[in-house]
Amino acid sequence: MTDGFPGIPAWQRAALAILPVVAASLIGQWATYPNLAPWYAELVKPSFNPPNWVFAPVWTALYALMALAVWRVLRSDGAWAQKRAALALFFCQLVLNALWSFLFFGLRSPLAGLIEIVPQWILIVMTIPRFWRLDSIAALCLCPLGLWVAFAALLNFEIWRLNG
After folding, report:
1. Which of left, alpha, beta for 67 (phi over 0: left; psi -120 to 50: alpha)?
2. Do 130 and 85 meet the contact criterion of CB atoms below 8 Å apart?
3. What is the distance between the alpha carbons of residues 107 and 33, in angstroms, rounded to a whole number?
4. Which CATH number goes with the domain that contains 96?
5. Which of 12, 82, 103, 125 might form a disulfide with 78, Cβ 3.0–4.6 angstroms?
6. What is the pLDDT of residues 112-127, one digit of tens each?
7. Is pLDDT of 57 > 80?
C-alpha cells in the first residue's frame, strides 16, 4: 500500500477517515439516548433483543472499523475515480446510519427506521466489493457492519411487528 494522496499530509487523511465516523456516532447518540427511557424501554421486543448495554461497545467497535476501512482506502493504490466511487457509497451509508437513529428513536417510529435500514444495508453490501478492489482489509472491516445492520434490520422489523 502506498500513499494514495501524494502531497496531502497523513493527518488530513486520518481526519477524513475519523471525523465523519465520529460525527455519525455522536449524531446517532444524540437522537437515541433521550428516547431509551421511557419510550424504547416500554416497547415489546423479541426474545433475541440484546440487552441495552451491548449496543454501545458493538457500535464503538463498528465505528472504529469503519474509520480504519476509510483510512486504508484513502491510502490504497487505486485510481482516484475508483476511490471516489467507493467512498461515495460509504459516506451515503454513513449518513443513513445516523439518520436511522432520528427515524427510529427521534421520531419514535420503528416503521420509518425499518424503511430506512433496508437501503442502508444495501449500500453497505455495495460498498464492500468496491473497497475490496482497493484494499481487501478495508472491505473485511465492513463485513461486521453488514452483519450487524442485517441483524438490526431483523430486530427493527420484529419491534415494528410486535408494537404495530
Report:
1. alpha
2. yes
3. 13
4. 1.20.1260.100
5. 82
6. 999 999 999 999 999 9
7. yes
Average pLDDT over residues 133-143: 98
DSSP code per residue over 3-62: -SSTTS-HHHHHHHHHHHHHHHHHHHHHHHGGGIIIIIHHS---TTPPPHHHHHHHHHHH
Is residue 76 situated within a structural domain? yes
Question: In 10 A of CB 147, how many CB atoms?
Answer: 13
For the chain, the domain total comes to: 1
Residues 6+ apart with CB under 8 A from 112: 103, 104
What is d(CA 132, CA 74) in angstroms, rounded to the nearest whole number? 13
Compute the distance between CA of residue 146 and CA of residue 125 in angstroms, rounded to an integer.
7
pLDDT, average across residues 139-146:
98
Distance from C-alpha of 106 to C-alpha of 100, rounded to nearest angstrom: 9
Which residues touch 162 (CB under 8 Å, ≥6 apart)?
Answer: 43, 44, 45, 46
Cell numbers 477517515: residue = 17
Q: b or e along 29-40 (b: 16 or more beta carbons within 10 Å of the residue's beta carbon)?
A: eebbeebeeeeb
What domain range is 137 assigned to?
A: 10-163
